Description:
Keywords: Membrane, Transmembrane, Transmembrane helix. The chain is mainly α. The chain contains 14 helices and no strands. 72% of the residues lie in helices and 0% in strands. The N and C termini lie far apart (97 Å).
Amino acid sequence: MSSRPRFAIVDIARGVAIIAMAVYHFCWDLSYFRFISADVGYDPAWVLFARSILAVFLFLAGVSLVLGHGDGIRWRSFWRRWLFVVAGALAITLATYFAFPQSFVYFGVLHAIALFSLLGLAFVHTPLWLGAVVAAGVIALPFFYSDPLFNEKVWSWLGFWQVPPPANDLVPVFPWFGAMLLGIIAARLVLASGWSARLAAIAPSGRLPRLLAFLGRWSLLIYLLHQPILLGLVYPAAALLQPQIAMRDVTFLQSCQSTCEAGGTSAQLCVTYCQCGLEGVKTNDLWNAVETGMVTAAEQALLDAQNRQCSAVIYPELNATP
Length: 322
C-alpha cells in the first residue's frame, strides 16, 4: 500500500509551531524561576498564545493522519509511531511527577495525541459531514455542560470541569479532539480538490524554509528533548543568579503601589511609601510574613510600627505632637 508524497508545507508549519512552543516553554521556565515578572501560566495573553500553539499542533496532527492513512490505514506504521508517542507521554508523566508532584502532567499534549490518533482513525474515511458534526459538538459541549465530578483528576481528562485540577499541562478530549477533527476534515477537503497537487509541489528553497521543514519532520523528538535542555540551562542560572530575590522586591513594590493608590493616595507618594515599606521588610527580615501571610505577634508589631513610620514619611503632620 503506497503512501502519499510528503507535503513540505505541513513540515514547515509544524516547524513554526515547535519553535513557538519552545519559546513559550522557555518563557514559562523564566517565569517559574522568577527571571521575568509575567505569570506565564495564568496571564491571559500567554494562555491565549499557548492554546493557539496547541490548536495548531492538534490540527496538524489531524492533517498528518489523513496524509499517512487516507488511502488506507497503514497499521504497522501507525502502531510504530503511536507507541513512540505513548512512550514519550509516559516519560513526561514520570519526569514531571518527580519535578512537580502537585501538578505533574498526567494528560498532556502527547497523551492527547495518542488518544486522539486512535479516535481520529474512525474519521479518516467516514462522510465529511459526520466529522464536521462531531467536531462542532466536541468543541461546543464544554461551553454548555460542566459538573464538579470532572474537577477530579481521574475524570478531568474529559474536560467538563468547573475548576480544573492543578497540572502543568492538561489537554482534555473536550474541546481539543475537535481541533484534530478539523485538521482531518481540512486535509480531506484539500486532497479532494485541485489544491492538492499545488501544495504537494511546494518545496522549501531557502535556508529558513529548509530549517523549518527539518524541525517539522523531527518535531516529536524536539518536543521530548527541548524542555529538559531548557531547564538544564535555566535551573543552574537561577541557582547562580538567584533572580527570585530581585523579583520579590519588584513584586512587593507592584502590589504595595496598587494597594496604596487604591486607597486614594497619589502615585508619587505611594512610591515613597512603598520604598520605605520595602526597606523595613528587608531590615526586619519580614519576607516570610509578607509572602505567606502567616504572621506572629512580634512580626505584626513590627509591621504596624513600620506602617506608622512610612505613613509619617509621606504625611509629616502625623509626626506632629498635639
